[in-house]
What does this fold into?
Amino acid sequence: MSADHRIEAITKRLVERSKPTREAYLDRVRRAASKGVHRASLACGNLAHGFAVCSPGDKAALAGDTVPNLGIITAYNDMLSAHQPFETYPALIRDAAREAGGVAQVAGGVPAMCDGVTQGQPGMELSLFSRDVIAMAAGIGLSHNMFDSTVYLGVCDKIVPGLMIAALTFGHLPAVFVPAGPMTSGLSNDEKVRVRQLYAEGKVGRAELLEAESKSYHGPGTCTFYGTANSNQMLMEIMGFHLPGASFVNPGTPLRDALTKEAAKRALQITALGNEFTPAGEMIDERSIINGVVGLHATGGSTNHTMHLIAMARAGGIQLTWQDISDLSDIVPLLARVYPNGLADVNHFHAAGGMGYLIKQLLKGGLLHDDVRTVYGQGLAAYTIEPKLNADGTVARQPAPEESHDPKVLARIETPFQANGGLKMLTGNVGKSVIKISAVKPERHVIEAPALVFHSQQEMQDAFKRGELNRDFVAVVRFQGPKACGMPELHKLTPSLGVLQDRGHKVALVTDGRMSGASGKVPAAIHVTPEAVDGGPIAKIKDGDMVRLDAIAGTLEVLVDQQEFESREAVTIDLSDNEFGMGRELFAPLRRVAGPADMGASVLY
It folds into this structure.
Protein backbone atom coordinates (compact mmCIF):
# COMPACT_ATOMS: atom_id res chain seq x y z
CA MET A 1 0.00 0.00 0.00
CA SER A 2 1.54 3.32 -1.04
CA ALA A 3 1.39 6.40 1.15
CA ASP A 4 -0.35 9.66 0.31
CA HIS A 5 1.77 11.78 -2.05
CA ARG A 6 2.11 14.48 0.64
CA ILE A 7 3.47 11.94 3.11
CA GLU A 8 5.82 10.66 0.40
CA ALA A 9 7.04 14.20 -0.33
CA ILE A 10 7.88 14.91 3.32
CA THR A 11 9.56 11.51 3.63
CA LYS A 12 11.64 12.15 0.51
CA ARG A 13 12.65 15.54 1.90
CA LEU A 14 13.74 13.88 5.14
CA VAL A 15 15.71 11.21 3.28
CA GLU A 16 17.56 13.82 1.19
CA ARG A 17 18.37 16.00 4.21
CA SER A 18 19.60 12.99 6.18
CA LYS A 19 21.76 11.37 3.50
CA PRO A 20 25.22 12.36 4.79
CA THR A 21 24.57 11.45 8.42
CA ARG A 22 22.38 8.43 7.66
CA GLU A 23 24.92 6.88 5.30
CA ALA A 24 27.73 7.37 7.80
CA TYR A 25 25.56 5.83 10.52
CA LEU A 26 24.60 2.78 8.44
CA ASP A 27 28.24 2.24 7.54
CA ARG A 28 29.10 2.05 11.26
CA VAL A 29 26.20 -0.31 11.96
CA ARG A 30 27.13 -2.65 9.12
CA ARG A 31 30.79 -2.73 10.08
CA ALA A 32 29.84 -3.62 13.66
CA ALA A 33 27.41 -6.33 12.47
CA SER A 34 30.02 -7.83 10.12
CA LYS A 35 32.17 -8.83 13.09
CA GLY A 36 29.77 -11.66 13.87
CA VAL A 37 28.94 -13.04 17.34
CA HIS A 38 30.48 -10.44 19.58
CA ARG A 39 31.39 -12.45 22.63
CA ALA A 40 33.49 -14.68 20.33
CA SER A 41 35.98 -11.81 20.23
CA LEU A 42 36.34 -11.73 24.02
CA ALA A 43 39.42 -13.20 25.66
CA CYS A 44 38.84 -16.20 27.91
CA GLY A 45 39.19 -14.05 31.03
CA ASN A 46 36.67 -11.56 29.67
CA LEU A 47 34.17 -14.28 28.87
CA ALA A 48 34.64 -16.03 32.21
CA HIS A 49 33.73 -12.82 34.00
CA GLY A 50 30.71 -12.44 31.72
CA PHE A 51 29.11 -15.75 32.61
CA ALA A 52 30.56 -16.41 36.08
CA VAL A 53 27.15 -16.57 37.81
CA CYS A 54 25.31 -18.48 35.07
CA SER A 55 24.09 -22.04 35.47
CA PRO A 56 26.36 -24.78 34.10
CA GLY A 57 24.05 -25.18 31.11
CA ASP A 58 24.09 -21.49 30.30
CA LYS A 59 27.87 -21.37 30.74
CA ALA A 60 28.29 -24.18 28.26
CA ALA A 61 25.97 -22.43 25.82
CA LEU A 62 27.75 -19.08 26.09
CA ALA A 63 31.20 -20.64 25.76
CA GLY A 64 30.44 -21.28 22.09
CA ASP A 65 29.20 -18.95 19.39
CA THR A 66 26.06 -20.70 18.19
CA VAL A 67 23.61 -20.03 21.04
CA PRO A 68 22.17 -16.50 21.10
CA ASN A 69 22.44 -14.43 24.26
CA LEU A 70 19.74 -11.88 24.98
CA GLY A 71 20.70 -8.73 26.87
CA ILE A 72 18.01 -7.24 29.10
CA ILE A 73 18.11 -3.51 29.82
CA THR A 74 15.62 -2.76 32.56
CA ALA A 75 14.18 0.42 34.04
CA TYR A 76 12.70 -1.47 36.99
CA ASN A 77 12.16 0.19 40.33
CA ASP A 78 9.38 -0.49 42.79
CA MET A 79 8.48 3.10 43.65
CA LEU A 80 7.05 4.00 40.25
CA SER A 81 3.80 2.37 39.21
CA ALA A 82 4.72 2.02 35.53
CA HIS A 83 8.02 0.25 36.21
CA GLN A 84 7.17 -1.88 39.24
CA PRO A 85 5.75 -4.70 37.05
CA PHE A 86 9.20 -5.17 35.47
CA GLU A 87 10.38 -6.83 38.71
CA THR A 88 9.21 -10.23 37.44
CA TYR A 89 10.12 -9.80 33.77
CA PRO A 90 13.76 -11.03 33.82
CA ALA A 91 12.66 -14.42 35.15
CA LEU A 92 9.94 -14.66 32.49
CA ILE A 93 12.40 -13.66 29.79
CA ARG A 94 15.09 -16.11 30.95
CA ASP A 95 12.56 -18.97 30.91
CA ALA A 96 11.31 -17.96 27.46
CA ALA A 97 14.87 -17.69 26.17
CA ARG A 98 15.71 -21.21 27.35
CA GLU A 99 12.54 -22.53 25.70
CA ALA A 100 13.75 -20.90 22.47
CA GLY A 101 17.24 -22.38 22.80
CA GLY A 102 18.94 -19.24 24.01
CA VAL A 103 20.21 -17.51 27.11
CA ALA A 104 19.18 -14.19 28.65
CA GLN A 105 21.05 -11.96 31.09
CA VAL A 106 20.22 -8.63 32.68
CA ALA A 107 22.83 -6.46 31.01
CA GLY A 108 22.13 -3.42 33.15
CA GLY A 109 19.63 -1.15 34.78
CA VAL A 110 18.82 2.44 33.94
CA PRO A 111 17.30 5.17 36.11
CA ALA A 112 13.60 5.84 35.80
CA MET A 113 12.22 9.00 37.33
CA CYS A 114 8.61 10.06 37.38
CA ASP A 115 7.59 13.56 36.37
CA GLY A 116 4.39 13.03 38.33
CA VAL A 117 6.42 12.78 41.56
CA THR A 118 8.82 15.64 40.77
CA GLN A 119 6.26 17.99 39.16
CA GLY A 120 6.81 21.50 40.51
CA GLN A 121 9.74 20.28 42.65
CA PRO A 122 13.50 20.92 42.30
CA GLY A 123 14.05 17.34 41.12
CA MET A 124 12.04 18.13 37.98
CA GLU A 125 15.08 20.01 36.71
CA LEU A 126 16.85 16.66 36.24
CA SER A 127 14.01 15.13 34.26
CA LEU A 128 14.79 16.05 30.66
CA PHE A 129 18.48 15.25 30.97
CA SER A 130 17.62 11.86 32.48
CA ARG A 131 16.80 10.81 28.90
CA ASP A 132 20.41 11.14 27.82
CA VAL A 133 21.68 9.66 31.10
CA ILE A 134 19.43 6.63 30.44
CA ALA A 135 20.94 6.23 26.98
CA MET A 136 24.43 6.35 28.47
CA ALA A 137 23.53 3.94 31.28
CA ALA A 138 22.14 1.44 28.76
CA GLY A 139 25.34 1.88 26.75
CA ILE A 140 27.38 0.88 29.79
CA GLY A 141 25.37 -2.32 30.17
CA LEU A 142 25.73 -3.24 26.52
CA SER A 143 29.41 -2.31 26.36
CA HIS A 144 30.28 -5.74 27.80
CA ASN A 145 29.78 -7.01 24.25
CA MET A 146 28.18 -10.27 25.40
CA PHE A 147 24.92 -10.04 23.47
CA ASP A 148 23.36 -11.03 20.16
CA SER A 149 20.06 -9.23 20.73
CA THR A 150 18.42 -6.95 23.26
CA VAL A 151 15.12 -6.34 24.98
CA TYR A 152 14.37 -2.98 26.59
CA LEU A 153 12.05 -2.79 29.59
CA GLY A 154 10.80 0.77 29.94
CA VAL A 155 7.62 2.78 29.70
CA CYS A 156 7.61 6.36 30.91
CA ASP A 157 8.46 9.83 29.79
CA LYS A 158 12.23 10.02 29.29
CA ILE A 159 12.92 6.31 29.69
CA VAL A 160 11.71 5.04 26.32
CA PRO A 161 13.34 7.87 24.33
CA GLY A 162 16.60 7.23 26.21
CA LEU A 163 16.34 3.50 25.56
CA MET A 164 15.64 4.07 21.88
CA ILE A 165 18.69 6.32 21.60
CA ALA A 166 20.68 3.44 23.13
CA ALA A 167 19.07 0.88 20.81
CA LEU A 168 20.08 2.92 17.77
CA THR A 169 23.54 3.61 19.17
CA PHE A 170 23.94 -0.18 19.37
CA GLY A 171 22.12 -0.40 16.06
CA HIS A 172 23.97 -3.55 14.96
CA LEU A 173 21.94 -5.48 17.54
CA PRO A 174 18.25 -6.34 17.19
CA ALA A 175 16.06 -4.64 19.79
CA VAL A 176 12.56 -5.42 21.01
CA PHE A 177 10.79 -3.04 23.40
CA VAL A 178 8.68 -4.69 26.09
CA PRO A 179 6.04 -2.55 27.86
CA ALA A 180 4.28 -3.13 31.18
CA GLY A 181 0.91 -1.67 30.20
CA PRO A 182 -1.43 0.87 31.83
CA MET A 183 -2.97 0.61 35.29
CA THR A 184 -6.66 -0.12 35.40
CA SER A 185 -9.01 2.86 35.26
CA GLY A 186 -9.53 4.84 38.45
CA LEU A 187 -11.16 8.17 39.16
CA SER A 188 -12.39 9.75 35.92
CA ASN A 189 -10.14 12.38 34.41
CA ASP A 190 -12.79 15.11 34.37
CA GLU A 191 -13.44 14.58 38.09
CA LYS A 192 -9.70 14.71 38.82
CA VAL A 193 -9.40 18.02 36.94
CA ARG A 194 -12.45 19.40 38.76
CA VAL A 195 -10.90 18.72 42.16
CA ARG A 196 -7.53 20.15 41.09
CA GLN A 197 -9.17 23.40 40.02
CA LEU A 198 -11.20 23.58 43.24
CA TYR A 199 -7.97 23.18 45.18
CA ALA A 200 -6.31 25.94 43.11
CA GLU A 201 -9.21 28.22 44.07
CA GLY A 202 -8.94 27.27 47.74
CA LYS A 203 -12.38 25.62 47.75
CA VAL A 204 -11.14 22.20 48.88
CA GLY A 205 -8.17 21.28 51.05
CA ARG A 206 -5.11 19.07 50.64
CA ALA A 207 -6.89 16.03 52.08
CA GLU A 208 -9.59 16.14 49.39
CA LEU A 209 -6.98 16.72 46.68
CA LEU A 210 -4.81 13.82 47.85
CA GLU A 211 -7.84 11.53 47.99
CA ALA A 212 -8.72 12.37 44.37
CA GLU A 213 -5.14 11.97 43.18
CA SER A 214 -4.81 8.62 44.98
CA LYS A 215 -7.97 7.33 43.31
CA SER A 216 -6.53 8.38 39.95
CA TYR A 217 -3.07 6.84 40.42
CA HIS A 218 -3.84 3.72 42.36
CA GLY A 219 -1.95 0.64 41.18
CA PRO A 220 0.69 -0.93 38.92
CA GLY A 221 1.06 0.39 35.37
CA THR A 222 1.29 3.70 33.58
CA CYS A 223 -0.97 6.61 34.40
CA THR A 224 -4.04 6.20 32.25
CA PHE A 225 -4.13 9.66 30.67
CA TYR A 226 -2.55 10.10 27.24
CA GLY A 227 0.67 11.79 28.26
CA THR A 228 4.25 11.11 27.27
CA ALA A 229 4.35 7.60 28.78
CA ASN A 230 1.44 6.31 26.73
CA SER A 231 2.56 8.31 23.69
CA ASN A 232 5.82 6.34 24.03
CA GLN A 233 3.93 3.06 23.82
CA MET A 234 1.99 4.18 20.77
CA LEU A 235 5.26 5.21 19.11
CA MET A 236 7.05 1.94 19.82
CA GLU A 237 4.19 -0.02 18.27
CA ILE A 238 3.61 2.16 15.21
CA MET A 239 7.38 2.29 14.57
CA GLY A 240 7.66 -1.50 14.79
CA PHE A 241 9.66 -1.90 18.02
CA HIS A 242 6.76 -3.62 19.85
CA LEU A 243 5.11 -6.84 18.84
CA PRO A 244 1.62 -6.19 17.41
CA GLY A 245 -0.91 -5.34 20.09
CA ALA A 246 1.57 -5.12 22.95
CA SER A 247 1.15 -1.50 24.02
CA PHE A 248 -1.96 -1.24 26.18
CA VAL A 249 -2.57 -4.62 27.86
CA ASN A 250 -2.82 -4.23 31.66
CA PRO A 251 -0.04 -5.51 33.96
CA GLY A 252 -0.43 -8.72 35.90
CA THR A 253 -2.65 -10.41 33.33
CA PRO A 254 -1.97 -13.72 31.52
CA LEU A 255 -2.00 -11.89 28.17
CA ARG A 256 0.63 -9.42 29.43
CA ASP A 257 2.91 -12.29 30.46
CA ALA A 258 2.32 -14.10 27.17
CA LEU A 259 3.30 -10.99 25.22
CA THR A 260 6.48 -10.63 27.31
CA LYS A 261 7.51 -14.24 26.67
CA GLU A 262 6.74 -13.87 22.98
CA ALA A 263 8.87 -10.72 22.81
CA ALA A 264 11.85 -12.55 24.31
CA LYS A 265 11.56 -15.41 21.86
CA ARG A 266 11.16 -13.05 18.93
CA ALA A 267 14.27 -11.10 19.98
CA LEU A 268 16.24 -14.35 19.73
CA GLN A 269 14.75 -15.23 16.34
CA ILE A 270 16.02 -12.02 14.73
CA THR A 271 19.71 -12.27 15.65
CA ALA A 272 22.53 -12.63 13.14
CA LEU A 273 22.66 -16.33 14.05
CA GLY A 274 19.34 -16.95 12.25
CA ASN A 275 17.74 -16.17 8.93
CA GLU A 276 15.74 -13.09 10.01
CA PHE A 277 18.51 -10.76 11.16
CA THR A 278 16.89 -7.42 12.02
CA PRO A 279 19.43 -4.97 13.42
CA ALA A 280 17.65 -2.01 15.03
CA GLY A 281 19.70 0.58 13.16
CA GLU A 282 18.65 -0.77 9.78
CA MET A 283 15.08 -1.56 10.79
CA ILE A 284 14.34 2.01 11.84
CA ASP A 285 14.59 4.34 8.86
CA GLU A 286 13.08 7.63 7.69
CA ARG A 287 9.74 5.95 6.92
CA SER A 288 9.57 4.56 10.47
CA ILE A 289 10.20 8.02 11.91
CA ILE A 290 7.50 9.56 9.69
CA ASN A 291 5.09 6.83 10.85
CA GLY A 292 5.84 7.79 14.44
CA VAL A 293 5.07 11.46 13.83
CA VAL A 294 1.84 10.52 12.02
CA GLY A 295 0.76 8.41 14.99
CA LEU A 296 1.57 11.25 17.36
CA HIS A 297 -0.67 13.64 15.43
CA ALA A 298 -3.50 11.15 14.94
CA THR A 299 -3.69 10.53 18.70
CA GLY A 300 -3.03 14.08 19.95
CA GLY A 301 0.18 12.91 21.60
CA SER A 302 2.76 14.48 23.85
CA THR A 303 4.52 17.74 23.07
CA ASN A 304 7.65 16.23 24.62
CA HIS A 305 8.04 14.22 21.45
CA THR A 306 8.72 17.34 19.43
CA MET A 307 12.09 17.03 21.21
CA HIS A 308 12.35 13.31 21.86
CA LEU A 309 11.58 12.20 18.31
CA ILE A 310 14.22 14.58 16.99
CA ALA A 311 16.83 13.24 19.42
CA MET A 312 15.80 9.63 18.76
CA ALA A 313 15.99 10.13 14.99
CA ARG A 314 19.40 11.79 15.23
CA ALA A 315 20.72 8.72 17.05
CA GLY A 316 20.05 6.86 13.79
CA GLY A 317 21.50 9.59 11.57
CA ILE A 318 18.05 10.95 10.60
CA GLN A 319 17.60 14.74 10.62
CA LEU A 320 13.96 15.26 11.61
CA THR A 321 12.87 18.90 12.15
CA TRP A 322 10.02 20.82 13.73
CA GLN A 323 9.02 21.88 10.23
CA ASP A 324 8.55 18.23 9.24
CA ILE A 325 6.42 17.66 12.34
CA SER A 326 4.34 20.79 11.71
CA ASP A 327 3.81 20.02 8.02
CA LEU A 328 2.62 16.52 8.90
CA SER A 329 0.18 18.06 11.38
CA ASP A 330 -1.54 19.85 8.49
CA ILE A 331 -2.08 16.49 6.75
CA VAL A 332 -2.91 14.04 9.53
CA PRO A 333 -6.39 14.20 11.12
CA LEU A 334 -7.07 13.62 14.80
CA LEU A 335 -8.63 10.17 15.25
CA ALA A 336 -8.43 9.66 19.01
CA ARG A 337 -10.05 11.46 21.91
CA VAL A 338 -8.14 10.44 25.03
CA TYR A 339 -7.60 12.72 28.02
CA PRO A 340 -6.45 15.52 27.91
CA ASN A 341 -8.01 15.60 24.42
CA GLY A 342 -11.21 13.96 25.70
CA LEU A 343 -12.68 12.27 28.75
CA ALA A 344 -11.60 8.70 27.92
CA ASP A 345 -8.40 7.08 29.19
CA VAL A 346 -6.05 4.66 27.43
CA ASN A 347 -8.01 1.64 28.65
CA HIS A 348 -11.07 3.04 26.87
CA PHE A 349 -8.86 3.66 23.81
CA HIS A 350 -7.69 0.05 23.85
CA ALA A 351 -11.24 -1.25 24.31
CA ALA A 352 -12.49 0.90 21.43
CA GLY A 353 -10.10 -0.85 19.03
CA GLY A 354 -6.77 0.51 20.17
CA MET A 355 -3.62 0.49 18.11
CA GLY A 356 -4.87 -2.10 15.64
CA TYR A 357 -7.89 -0.03 14.67
CA LEU A 358 -5.87 3.20 14.60
CA ILE A 359 -3.20 1.75 12.31
CA LYS A 360 -5.85 0.21 10.06
CA GLN A 361 -7.56 3.59 9.63
CA LEU A 362 -4.29 5.43 8.97
CA LEU A 363 -3.24 2.83 6.40
CA LYS A 364 -6.67 3.13 4.79
CA GLY A 365 -6.09 6.87 4.44
CA GLY A 366 -2.61 6.37 2.96
CA LEU A 367 -1.08 8.18 5.91
CA LEU A 368 1.43 5.50 6.96
CA HIS A 369 4.25 3.68 5.21
CA ASP A 370 3.27 0.00 5.31
CA ASP A 371 6.50 -1.13 3.63
CA VAL A 372 8.67 -0.78 6.73
CA ARG A 373 10.64 -3.36 8.66
CA THR A 374 9.40 -4.31 12.13
CA VAL A 375 10.53 -6.68 14.85
CA TYR A 376 7.55 -8.85 13.88
CA GLY A 377 9.10 -9.45 10.48
CA GLN A 378 6.23 -7.94 8.50
CA GLY A 379 5.03 -4.47 7.54
CA LEU A 380 2.52 -2.38 9.45
CA ALA A 381 -0.49 -4.18 7.99
CA ALA A 382 0.40 -7.02 10.39
CA TYR A 383 -0.23 -4.60 13.27
CA THR A 384 -3.91 -4.10 12.40
CA ILE A 385 -4.94 -6.66 15.01
CA GLU A 386 -6.36 -7.14 18.48
CA PRO A 387 -4.32 -9.34 20.86
CA LYS A 388 -6.07 -12.22 22.58
CA LEU A 389 -5.00 -15.25 24.60
CA ASN A 390 -5.06 -18.78 23.21
CA ALA A 391 -6.20 -21.68 25.38
CA ASP A 392 -2.57 -22.82 25.66
CA GLY A 393 -1.47 -19.45 27.04
CA THR A 394 0.12 -18.12 23.86
CA VAL A 395 -0.81 -14.93 22.04
CA ALA A 396 -3.57 -14.98 19.43
CA ARG A 397 -4.18 -12.10 17.05
CA GLN A 398 -7.55 -11.30 15.55
CA PRO A 399 -8.20 -8.68 12.85
CA ALA A 400 -8.89 -5.23 14.27
CA PRO A 401 -12.53 -4.18 13.98
CA GLU A 402 -13.74 -2.43 10.85
CA GLU A 403 -15.70 -0.01 13.01
CA SER A 404 -14.73 1.60 16.29
CA HIS A 405 -16.26 0.03 19.39
CA ASP A 406 -16.66 3.59 20.71
CA PRO A 407 -16.85 6.36 18.07
CA LYS A 408 -16.49 8.97 20.81
CA VAL A 409 -12.97 7.68 21.49
CA LEU A 410 -11.75 6.42 18.12
CA ALA A 411 -12.99 7.87 14.85
CA ARG A 412 -13.02 6.64 11.26
CA ILE A 413 -10.53 8.19 8.84
CA GLU A 414 -13.47 9.62 6.87
CA THR A 415 -14.96 11.39 9.92
CA PRO A 416 -12.08 12.54 12.17
CA PHE A 417 -12.49 14.62 15.30
CA GLN A 418 -10.59 17.41 13.58
CA ALA A 419 -8.92 17.76 10.21
CA ASN A 420 -5.40 18.33 11.48
CA GLY A 421 -3.09 16.81 14.04
CA GLY A 422 -2.31 17.81 17.56
CA LEU A 423 1.03 19.61 17.26
CA LYS A 424 2.09 22.68 15.31
CA MET A 425 5.17 24.86 15.07
CA LEU A 426 4.85 28.59 15.68
CA THR A 427 7.32 31.12 14.30
CA GLY A 428 7.72 34.87 14.65
CA ASN A 429 9.78 37.55 16.33
CA VAL A 430 9.83 35.56 19.59
CA GLY A 431 11.60 32.67 17.84
CA LYS A 432 10.28 29.17 17.25
CA SER A 433 7.96 27.21 19.51
CA VAL A 434 5.43 24.38 19.44
CA ILE A 435 1.82 24.19 20.53
CA LYS A 436 -0.56 21.31 21.18
CA ILE A 437 -4.00 22.22 19.88
CA SER A 438 -5.86 18.91 20.00
CA ALA A 439 -7.39 19.76 23.40
CA VAL A 440 -7.76 23.52 22.81
CA LYS A 441 -11.17 24.72 21.64
CA PRO A 442 -11.09 26.35 18.17
CA GLU A 443 -12.20 29.72 19.54
CA ARG A 444 -8.99 29.79 21.61
CA HIS A 445 -6.58 29.00 18.76
CA VAL A 446 -5.90 32.73 18.47
CA ILE A 447 -5.14 34.76 21.61
CA GLU A 448 -4.04 38.39 21.65
CA ALA A 449 -3.45 39.94 25.05
CA PRO A 450 -0.87 41.89 27.07
CA ALA A 451 2.12 40.05 28.46
CA LEU A 452 2.72 39.40 32.13
CA VAL A 453 6.31 38.27 32.64
CA PHE A 454 7.42 35.75 35.28
CA HIS A 455 10.74 34.08 35.97
CA SER A 456 9.38 30.99 37.71
CA GLN A 457 6.10 29.14 37.93
CA GLN A 458 6.00 29.85 41.66
CA GLU A 459 6.12 33.58 40.93
CA MET A 460 3.06 33.22 38.74
CA GLN A 461 1.29 31.03 41.28
CA ASP A 462 1.84 33.66 43.95
CA ALA A 463 0.33 36.33 41.68
CA PHE A 464 -2.70 34.09 41.10
CA LYS A 465 -3.19 33.56 44.83
CA ARG A 466 -3.00 37.32 45.40
CA GLY A 467 -5.86 37.78 42.91
CA GLU A 468 -3.71 39.76 40.45
CA LEU A 469 -4.49 37.65 37.37
CA ASN A 470 -8.23 38.17 36.94
CA ARG A 471 -7.85 39.63 33.44
CA ASP A 472 -6.85 38.81 29.88
CA PHE A 473 -3.11 38.15 29.61
CA VAL A 474 -0.37 36.04 28.09
CA ALA A 475 1.85 34.58 30.80
CA VAL A 476 5.48 34.71 29.67
CA VAL A 477 7.39 32.30 31.91
CA ARG A 478 11.03 32.41 30.90
CA PHE A 479 14.44 31.14 31.99
CA GLN A 480 12.94 27.65 32.00
CA GLY A 481 14.94 26.24 29.06
CA PRO A 482 17.49 23.40 28.95
CA LYS A 483 20.52 25.57 29.68
CA ALA A 484 18.79 27.68 32.31
CA CYS A 485 17.46 24.96 34.59
CA GLY A 486 17.04 21.71 32.65
CA MET A 487 13.65 22.63 31.11
CA PRO A 488 11.17 21.44 33.73
CA GLU A 489 7.51 20.87 32.98
CA LEU A 490 5.33 23.70 34.25
CA HIS A 491 2.17 21.82 35.20
CA LYS A 492 1.84 23.75 38.42
CA LEU A 493 0.38 26.44 36.16
CA THR A 494 -2.28 24.27 34.55
CA PRO A 495 -5.02 24.47 37.25
CA SER A 496 -4.72 28.22 37.78
CA LEU A 497 -4.68 29.01 34.05
CA GLY A 498 -7.65 26.68 33.62
CA VAL A 499 -9.55 28.50 36.36
CA LEU A 500 -8.88 31.88 34.75
CA GLN A 501 -9.95 30.61 31.34
CA ASP A 502 -13.15 29.16 32.81
CA ARG A 503 -13.89 32.58 34.29
CA GLY A 504 -14.02 33.92 30.74
CA HIS A 505 -10.58 35.49 30.46
CA LYS A 506 -8.39 35.18 27.38
CA VAL A 507 -5.25 33.50 28.68
CA ALA A 508 -2.27 31.78 27.12
CA LEU A 509 1.21 30.66 28.10
CA VAL A 510 4.49 31.43 26.33
CA THR A 511 7.56 29.71 27.76
CA ASP A 512 10.96 28.26 26.95
CA GLY A 513 10.02 25.45 29.35
CA ARG A 514 7.80 22.42 28.81
CA MET A 515 4.19 21.41 29.42
CA SER A 516 4.39 17.79 28.15
CA GLY A 517 1.84 15.17 27.25
CA ALA A 518 -0.73 16.55 29.66
CA SER A 519 -0.88 19.88 27.80
CA GLY A 520 -4.56 20.64 27.82
CA LYS A 521 -7.21 23.22 27.17
CA VAL A 522 -5.14 26.40 27.66
CA PRO A 523 -3.20 27.51 24.54
CA ALA A 524 0.51 27.19 25.33
CA ALA A 525 3.44 28.13 23.09
CA ILE A 526 6.20 26.05 24.64
CA HIS A 527 9.83 25.08 23.98
CA VAL A 528 10.49 28.64 22.79
CA THR A 529 13.93 28.77 21.20
CA PRO A 530 16.35 30.51 21.41
CA GLU A 531 15.80 30.30 25.15
CA ALA A 532 16.06 33.30 27.46
CA VAL A 533 19.42 32.32 28.94
CA ASP A 534 20.89 32.44 25.42
CA GLY A 535 19.60 35.97 24.96
CA GLY A 536 16.61 34.87 22.89
CA PRO A 537 13.84 37.36 22.06
CA ILE A 538 11.68 35.94 24.85
CA ALA A 539 14.14 37.68 27.21
CA LYS A 540 13.18 41.06 25.66
CA ILE A 541 9.44 40.88 26.35
CA LYS A 542 8.13 43.41 28.89
CA ASP A 543 4.95 43.51 30.96
CA GLY A 544 2.19 45.07 28.86
CA ASP A 545 3.62 44.17 25.45
CA MET A 546 0.82 42.86 23.27
CA VAL A 547 1.44 39.23 22.33
CA ARG A 548 -0.42 37.41 19.57
CA LEU A 549 -0.46 33.61 19.54
CA ASP A 550 -2.07 32.34 16.34
CA ALA A 551 -2.21 28.56 16.08
CA ILE A 552 -4.10 28.82 12.78
CA ALA A 553 -1.50 30.91 10.96
CA GLY A 554 1.32 29.28 12.94
CA THR A 555 2.73 32.50 14.37
CA LEU A 556 3.87 33.88 17.71
CA GLU A 557 4.53 37.62 17.72
CA VAL A 558 5.18 40.49 20.11
CA LEU A 559 3.17 43.34 18.62
CA VAL A 560 5.62 46.18 19.20
CA ASP A 561 7.70 48.20 16.77
CA GLN A 562 10.22 45.70 15.41
CA GLN A 563 13.15 48.11 15.46
CA GLU A 564 12.41 49.05 19.04
CA PHE A 565 12.00 45.37 20.02
CA GLU A 566 15.28 44.36 18.42
CA SER A 567 17.13 47.21 20.11
CA ARG A 568 16.07 46.11 23.60
CA GLU A 569 18.63 44.49 25.86
CA ALA A 570 17.84 40.89 26.74
CA VAL A 571 17.08 40.54 30.46
CA THR A 572 19.43 38.40 32.53
CA ILE A 573 18.70 36.94 35.97
CA ASP A 574 20.61 35.17 38.71
CA LEU A 575 20.09 31.42 38.28
CA SER A 576 22.28 30.29 41.17
CA ASP A 577 19.27 28.98 43.11
CA ASN A 578 18.81 26.37 40.36
CA GLU A 579 22.35 25.05 40.59
CA PHE A 580 22.27 23.06 43.84
CA GLY A 581 20.01 20.64 45.68
CA MET A 582 18.30 17.41 44.68
CA GLY A 583 21.28 16.50 42.51
CA ARG A 584 21.14 19.57 40.32
CA GLU A 585 24.84 20.26 40.89
CA LEU A 586 25.67 16.91 39.26
CA PHE A 587 23.93 18.05 36.09
CA ALA A 588 25.77 21.36 35.68
CA PRO A 589 27.96 20.03 32.82
CA LEU A 590 24.83 18.89 30.97
CA ARG A 591 23.15 22.28 31.30
CA ARG A 592 26.23 23.94 29.82
CA VAL A 593 26.25 21.82 26.65
CA ALA A 594 22.53 21.21 26.13
CA GLY A 595 21.34 21.84 22.60
CA PRO A 596 18.27 23.91 21.71
CA ALA A 597 14.77 22.47 21.94
CA ASP A 598 14.32 22.28 18.17
CA MET A 599 17.41 20.06 17.96
CA GLY A 600 16.16 17.70 20.65
CA ALA A 601 17.54 19.55 23.71
CA SER A 602 20.19 16.85 23.85
CA VAL A 603 23.65 16.73 25.36
CA LEU A 604 24.58 13.92 22.96
CA TYR A 605 23.85 15.30 19.49
